Amino acid sequence: MINTRTAPRSRTLRGTAAAALLGAAALVLTACSGSASVGDTSWGTLDAQGEPAMTFTADGKAFGTDGCNIVNGSWTEEKGKVTFGPLASTMMFCEGVDTWLSGASTAVVEGDKITFNDEDGKKIGSLKKTEFTAPK
Fold this sequence. Notes:
The protein has one helix at residues 6-32, and strands spanning 41-44, 53-56, 61-65, 70-78, 81-84, 88-89, 106-110, 113-117, 123-130. With 136 residues, it is α+β, with helices and mostly antiparallel strands. It folds into two domains: 1-33; 41-130, Lipocalin (Beta Barrel), CATH 2.40.128. The chain has an eight-stranded antiparallel beta barrel with strand order 1-2-3-4-5-7-8-9. 19% of the residues are buried.
């Protein structure tokens, strides 16, 4: 007598094992493909007078301060590079404050640091990651 249940069960187990292996490979490739998204992260100290800070929300909005002026805009991310849409900024004068953040065009995250670049690709500043604070 031939056991007809063995062949289909064996194929099912092989299919399940293959699917699990492909899933694990996809997770490994995703983990190695670059840094995590900047969505829902904060950088710099948001409540420090005269200090720059930026918060990125998962819906593609950026909120922050250059230490003097409010800076808002949008962002996208591709292959670990953040690109800003036009950043709007108030235009107050604050003596002794370097307002470099309002000139950001792109940014790159490396560990717990984000480095901002101007439209020529020149580094203009960096901030350390802090606890995410949702904009009000």
